[in-house]
TrEMBL record:
Ranges of residues in domain Cytochrome b561: 133-280
Cited PROSITE patterns: CYTOCHROME_B561, DOMON
Domain of life where this protein originates: Eukaryota
DOMON domain mapped to chain residues: 16-130
Protein name, UniProt field: Cytochrome b561 and DOMON domain-containing protein
Entry's Gene Ontology cellular component terms: membrane
Subcellular location: Membrane
UniProt xrefs under InterPro entries: Cyt_b561/ferric_Rdtase_TM (IPR006593), DOH_DOMON (IPR045266), DOMON_domain (IPR005018)
Keywords for the protein's UniProt record, in alphabetical order: Electron transport, Membrane, Signal, Transmembrane, Transmembrane helix, Transport
Main location: membrane
Amino acid sequence: ALVGNYSGLACQPVWNNFVLRYHQDKNNVLRVVLSTMYSTGWVGMGFSRDGLMIGSSAMVGWMGKKGLPHIRQFSLRSKSGSKAAVVDRGFLVSNNHDHTVVVQQAKIYVAFQLKFSYRLSHQHIILAFGPGVPVKNKLSKHQDKTSFTFDFTTGKGFADGPFPYGLRRAHGGLNLFAWGILMPIGAILARYFRRMDPLWFYLHVGIQFAAFIIGLAGVVAGVALYSKIQADIPAHRGLGIFILFLGILQVDHSLIVLYYALMLWSMSRLMDSECCAKNC
């Protein structure tokens, strides 16, 4: 059992009287023993991808009213309501047989093992506790909580600064406007307004180029946001890279077409002027 056998576990005080003992092996299995003072209620440790409570997954332990230990994973989906914390949901991969909760000398020890697909380094952690004993796996509102970034390779914790909401809005807004509005408008002009020659072509190229510049600004905002919160969302990042790649291809195609159109127009003007000179 993890509790009572701390051999090989690093020990780090993290918040108030919370102590984090942990070890991460070569297979990316993380062993954790979280301890703190305890009389009743629940104690939880959450793992967040962006530093926010909503969207995180937490391992929560408590002693039931009949003295039985409980530890479950919860998905934290909102700040309040019946579905704020959903039991047995979340992105943490674990084996229920490797979990245990022990109360000794007014201290609770919440022990669990988690399996990750990568080696944890800087990880957003949320610690919280509540006074009410969960009934039917329903968590009461927390009494207090904290969030910080913990480096599982060095054992150092860093206080999380204020979440950059403005940067997140800029990232989402710029990309939505560029790829979701301007790019389709440019495509519609090329498809349905060819009778307005050559105006449709210049509008098409101009709008596509503007969409690319705005979308690129959105990507830069996303990179800046990632550097601030170290969010680990590979699917989102991969989708963004793919869309940017398609945008580059689209703009390159439009610029190449514009180049040849201008070259043909220049050659046509030159030939017309030569014909006029010969006829005069």
